[in-house]
Write a structure and sequence with these properties.
With 422 residues, this protein is of the alpha/beta class. It is built from eleven helices and 16 strands. The chain has two domains: 275 residues, Aminopeptidase; 106 residues, Alpha-Beta Plaits (2-Layer Sandwich). The strands form four sheets. The chain has a six-stranded mixed sheet. Strands 10-11-9-12 form a four-stranded antiparallel sheet. A three-stranded antiparallel sheet has the order 4-5-16. A hairpin with a 2-residue loop joins strand 1 and strand 2. The relative contact order is 0.19. The model has no long low-confidence stretch (mean pLDDT 96). InterPro entries: ArgE/DapE, ArgE/DapE_CS, Bact_exopeptidase_dim_dom, Peptidase_M20, Peptidase_M20_dimer, Peptidase_M20A. Pfam families: M20_dimer (PF07687), Peptidase_M20 (PF01546). It catalyses: N-succinyl-(2S,6S)-2,6-diaminopimelate + H2O = (2S,6S)-2,6-diaminopimelate + succinate. Its EC number is 3.5.1.18.
Length: 422
């Protein structure tokens, strides 16, 4: 019988011993610009392939769109359980370089911080996954199941050519998955709200501006009335399903005790959030506008569906007597989660405590991610990765080196617990 605790400790010690190699790998990934857009993952995919080939682990390349390459590699026993470790190579654009205090593609380590675009989202986590995957082979660890590394090129612009593409084409499957997306050190995300993005177009009747409001019909002023109704979505009383209430409560506890600056955001876990993102209307100040378009980002809690939101909007907007149309676009998902008791959640959460001797528990996120795609295919999933959360997608992105090392240790130990569990 395998002593799994001893095996986990052996792997953790090996990560510690080779931590400089891990940090060098992370730095190298950051030094390769992989901004999306444009979304060309050729250079970084080749680098990862060359790294893994050192250990006879050559990944398959799957081009989902022009120069967007998904990499897949598996190690272990195909007859056992399969654990997917997933990460994305793309990063958001660096933006105005004059607003950075350092080269966003330097990958430098300064005062214990790894610096650069993607440091937190999510090249540090990606480096941890790749490093641990290679380490298993280097140490000739005989796994009773299979560890699959799935590296995707397209998450930051919606992910159409990444995780969902792999799942739709039956290129990956598993009993559980871990995405190395940024999280807090002791609190992986095991659930997320749904997304409901829509564009409202309000129609008016053009006329000379000097005759408004008597002449014509102003699409912009009608759109303003519509926006007031749309914002009332926040005030809807939604019944949270009983099975979800413990997750909501522990997530609110997290906001109170861990990320205390987010205390005021506790209500978003039970409410429909409404962001009026863009407004476009009219052609000239002296012409009564014929059209006004409004794009809205709503995030849906557990307890309400897309159809129910659509029905509410129809009733509310019809009551105004305006002419309008609505079309859905962008992210579309219902609130979704993985049980805290699922083996993949237990493997990560328990090993955060094993590595750090600190209480750990899973929480909800109020946004969306690739995790929803795994759940659509009945693959339990959670997210855990190194991050300095305030710097994500901003200037001067960074992550603490010690966080990169800690997460890699958790990744290594979790493989053992998950694959050895019957």
């Amino acid at each position: 019988m395998t002593d799994t605790i001893a095996l986990k400790q052996l792997l953790i010690d090996e990560v510690e011993k080779r931590k400089d190699e891990l940090i060098e790998l992370c730095s190298s990934l950051i030094q390769i610009p992989s901004e999306n857009p444009p979304g060309d993952s050729t250079e970084i995919s080749q680098f990862i392939t060359d790294y893994l080939k050192q250990y006879d682990l050559e990944p398959e390349w799957h081009e989902a769109s022009d120069k967007m390459f998904n990499l897949i590699s598996s190690y272990g026993n195909k007859e056992g359980k399969n654990l997917i470790y997933c990460g994305h190579t793309d990063v958001v654009p660096a933006g105005d370089l004059t607003k950075w205090d350092f080269n966003p593609f330097s990958g430098e380590v300064v005062d214990g911080w790894m610096l650069g675009r993607g440091a937190s989202d999510m090249k540090a986590g990606l480096a941890g996954l790749i490093f641990v995957y290679g380490l298993m082979k280097r140490m000739d660890i005989q796994l009773p199941g299979q560890l699959t590394l799935a590296i995707v090129p397209d998450e930051e612009t919606g992910g159409e050519f990444g995780v969902p593409w792999l799942l739709e084409n039956k290129l990956i499957a598993g009993d559980g998955a871990l995405i190395a997306e940024p999280s807090s050190p002791y609190n992986p995300t095991i659930g997320q709200k749904g997304s409901y993005w829509f564009e409202l177009e309000v129609f008016g009747t053009p006329g000379h501006g000097s005759l408004s409001p008597i002449a014509g019909n102003n699409a912009i002023t009608d759109a303003i009335k519509a926006i007031d109704k749309i914002q009332d979505l926040w005030d809807l009383n939604i019944t949270i399903p009983d099975e979800i209430k413990p997750l909501i409560e522990v997530s609110q506890r997290y906001m109170r005790e861990v990320e205390k600056d987010r205390l005021k955001f506790q209500p978003v876990l039970e409410k429909i959030t409404v962001n009026i993102g863009t407004i476009q209307g009219g052609t000239k100040s002296n012409i009564i506008p014929e059209s006004c378009k409004v794009q809205v980002d709503c995030r849906l809690p557990f307890g309400i569906t897309h159809d129910e939101v659509s029905l509410y909007l129809k009733d509310a907007l019809d009551s105004l007597g305006i002419r309008y149309s609505i079309r859905l676009f962008g992210f579309k998902s219902h609130a979704n989660y993985t049980s805290a008791e699922d083996p993949v959640c237990r493997a990560i959460v328990d090993n955060i405590t094993f590595v750090t001797d600190h209480e750990a528990y899973g929480v909800m996120q109020w946004a969306s991610s690739d995790a929803r795609h795994f759940r659509d295919y009945n693959i339990p999933v959670l997210q855990y990765g190194p991050a300095y959360l305030p710097s994500i997608h901003g200037y001067n992105e960074k992550v603490q080196v010690e966080d990169i090392i800690r997460c890699a240790k958790v990744y290594a130990a979790a493989v053992i617990d998950f694959l050895y569990e019957k």
